[in-house]
Design brief:
Blueprint lengths: L1 H18 L7 E4 L6 E5 L10 H7 L1 E4 L13 H11 L1
Antiparallel strand pairs: 1-2, 2-3
Amino acid sequence: MHQLYESKFEASIDNLISEGRYRSFANLQRECGNFPNATYRPQGFGYANVSEEEAESLKFDVSIFCSNDYLGMGQHPKVLKAAKESID
């Protein structure tokens, strides 16, 4: 049963790739309180196939303006205060 699931899953992923609908996400680490700055880390960062030294040499700084928080309002003090008050 497990192998059947795995093969169907892989076939579905292969189909998405062949149709051009497969989406992968960039490995970005945002800098809290420093909008819009972030660090791009290549795929495999933190995994066994990339050494710590190699990963450090491959990362670079980026600016992100294409998210749901492209204005940086998620880090604005008034927005944070309102969110905390809502939770309380």
